[in-house]
Amino acid sequence: MSGLQHHWDTYWQGKGGESQAVNAPEMARELAAFWNTHAGATLQGRGRARLLDLACGAGVVALESARAAQARSVGLQIVCMDIALEALLAAREGLSGADIVSVIAGDAGALPFAAGSFDLVFSQFGVEYAGLDALSQAPVVLADGGELAFLCHYKDGAIYAESRRNLRVWDAVETSGLLNLALGLLEAAYSADEGTGSQEGLHACGVAYRQAAEQAGALAQNSDGEAAQNVLRLLGDLAQLIRRRAAYDRDDARGWIRAQARSCAAVRQRLQDMTAAALDTGQVQAVLAVWREQGVNVPDPDALKLGDDTRPGAWLLKASRT
Hints:
Blueprint: H1 3-12, H2 25-43, E1 48-54, H3 60-71, E2 75-82, H4 85-94, E3 100-105, E4 118-124, H5 132-137, E5 142-153, H6 158-176, H7 178-194, H8 199-221, H9 226-243, H10 250-277, H11 281-293, E6 302-305, E7 312-320
Parallel strand pairs: 1-2, 1-4, 2-3, 4-5
Antiparallel strand pairs: 5-7, 6-7
Pfam families: Methyltransf_25
Enzyme class: transferase
GO molecular function: methyltransferase activity
């Protein structure tokens, strides 16, 4: 397993099919409705079609496309491709009722399909993570009469701004060394309880931990968003664990803090990846220029707004082959 595949498998472990790159339920519902409507429009008049859900994640796009196809009595052959095996397992489970579904583990930058293999090529907040070359080459697999539609992260848009806010909070947690200090304080407290550690050592660990907790807590209290809520909850859980340590097995308590550290690191990495993958106007225009060189029809990009936010939430990039 490559390092990149391991990274994305770690992200998708334990995640269900409800969300792909977005956490707010109302935004997820809005995106699902978009794909149901868009897929329905592109499937209209087709008896059968072949769909590639590229960098599919949990298969949200494929699922809404399958629902649109069923409503129009269109036979839809679906291929879900993602670099993460865990994502593909979630996608296959969510699409268990669809007619024909294949899942393929692979890199969106090295598609294992012949030119013209698909009538529809869709992606939601996925293919841009594989880089501009992957985006640029995607229309190669589009068949005559086929249509491509990608929703991609919009740099400086609404989702990007929220991700940046959340990332600042998790960066503060990492910089403060909060969880390492919590583990140190826990160990010092257990040792002091057993009479094998000094009160001076316990006091020093307590001072260091409280400074880190105050730093992270102050930023969280002055921020909004999911990260701030999660950090405040984490601080409360850590305080309770250390205060009531006698009620917990020492190894279990250690393990819980270490698991929290891994979880926080994974969330932080995800936010870093998301903000790095977001596309600016120049990058979008460069990709569309390559598409036009490949002989596909490319309209101007659209900026999709989500929810009540007036800022764009995503780029909508489309192409068709006549």
